[in-house]
Amino acid sequence: MPAHRTTMRRIKEVLRLKWACNLTHRQVQGALGVGLATITQYLQLATAAGLDWATVEPLEEDELERRVLSPASPPAPAKRIEPDCTLIHRELRRKGVTLQLLWEEYVALHPGQRTYRYTQFCQRYKDWAQTLKRSMRQQHRAGEKLFADFAGQTMPVLSRDGGVDFQAHIFVAVLGASNYTYACAMPSETTPDWIGGLIEAMEFCGGVPELLVPDNPRALIAKPDRYEPGLGRTTQDFVNHYATAMLPARPRKPQDKAKVEVGVQIVERWILARLRNHRFFSLAELNRAIGRLITDLNQRPFRKLEGNRREWFERLDQPALRALPARRYEIATFQKCRVNIDYHVEVDHHYYSVPHSLVRQEVYARVTRHGVEILHSGKRVAAHARSRLKGKHTTVPEHMPAAHRAHMEWTPGRLLNWGASIGPGAEAIVNHLLTNRPHPEMGYRACLGLLGLARKYGKDRLEAACQRALVIGSPTRRSVLSILESGLDRQPALPLQLTEWHSPEHENVRGPDYYH
Fold first, then answer.
1. Same domain for 383 and 268
2. For the HTH IS408-type domain, which residue ranges apply (predicted)?
3. Which of 48, 146, 324, 360 is the residue whose CA sits 20 to 30 A from 107?
């Protein structure tokens, strides 16, 4: 079965995590679920094309594909001979055997073939050895990881009549190097609660870590696979906003987030236990109480180390954290839409316009509390203020075809002003056409046809023809056109008061008495 082709959106994310976030190949693999060989291949292609992150970031997906996957790109080099890590692991137990000796034997065993240099040889063995099932003490670099999870214990929030209104869920986050801890209460464990907790934790720390390591909930992870987890679109949008990466823990593998597992235990024992006899009537009230105790917890001295969490945070993690973005992330949901023939997409039963060239194409609607953005091929093509009116339309004139836009610009007032610029006769007929229809728009075409006669016959002749049409009591475009074609507008003007007309005497004329 052929392998699925890696999308350009994922390739661009690989380049961002490597060049902008300075992650290792293994970390990128864990965050995106992309193979190490694929990561290496596309980094080599992008480097060979002379690209860097500053060049790649503004590129659209099709342009990035053209520049990275162009036919002129050099073919990928032949694969190197992989060392037998099992044999290496076994041989290293023998006295006097070193990695240097095993590397020399590995090269000698494959003459004329591509083999790894000594440094790469050692690194591949170390990477393999770390996959063995064993207990090991994890070492965390400053500012590298923020671990997050929800505590199993909840706190009741009471209603004013004394009953339980709802159970608040406790969000906990811990920085890896300093164990600096944050906790807050959330109404549930949905996507906005997870992302909101992570945002507040980063704002509490005053910076952004290199990696976010949450549990593996459906609220964040669209594909909760043990080996290749896939982030949801909202989660990926949040991660991109803060220029960081997310590496969720494996399902049922608490050792992947041991720091926050211990942090949850400490929060339950040192904070929630102290609040067990308190009564809270709102989430804000509960969070104020938790905030005071979190401050005390971070200033409590360590038992076996010098200082406390606050001091270690200020010395280790705080200088290494990246700055927060200028604006806070606003929770967004994504909806796949197909552009209708009227160049509008439906979002929550309201219709928003997009450029008419995208008719029948698939787009994504990024919906926030106050706005709706339309994305096509990773690029924003439209933005609207969000409307709650069902069945209504929000239309930007620039999205319409030229003919539709011109029609929309016509109003009764504009047509009357144009008629007045020709003369009072033309204005009177335009007014008649607009007011003697069930709706003014029904007379738009007739008015445009009437006023368009000025291009062929001139304004003076059109005004004279309109005056004659009014006198004979036929204020229609057809009458005006007939007068112009027959040249009656050039004859002397008719008197405004016409004499009464009498039929001639003739045997074929029945007369009024015939109908009595």
1. no
2. 11-92
3. 48
Report yes or no on 25 lying in a domain: yes
Q: Tokens for 435, please give them.
A: 């007011």
Q: 16: which 2 tokens?
A: 């961002």
Average pLDDT, integer, range 199-210:
93
- As beta bridge partners, residue 245 has 211
Determine what percent of the chain is predicted with pLDDT higher than 70: 85
Question: Judging by DSSP bridges, how do beta strands 211-213 and 145-158 pair with one another?
Answer: parallel
Q: What is the pTM of this model?
A: 0.54
Pair 501, 472: CB distance under 8 Å: no
Lookup: tokens for 70: 């162009």
Strand partners, 149: 172
- Does 262 lie in the same domain as 180? yes
CATH of the domain at 187: 3.30.420.10
Domains of the chain: total: 5
Q: Maximum Cα–Cα distance for the chain, whole Å?
A: 140
Instruction: Look at 149-153, 288-292, 322-326, 439-443 and tell me which has the smallest mean pLDDT.
Output: 439-443
State the Cα–Cα distance between residues 317 and 173, nearest whole angstrom.
14
Confidence category of residue 498, pLDDT binned at 50, 70, 90: very low
Residue 268 token pair:
């339950």
Report the pLDDT averaged over residues 499-503.
Answer: 47
Q: What residue numbers bound the domain in which 50 lies? A: 8-68
- What phi, psi does 147 have (nearest 5°)? -90, 145
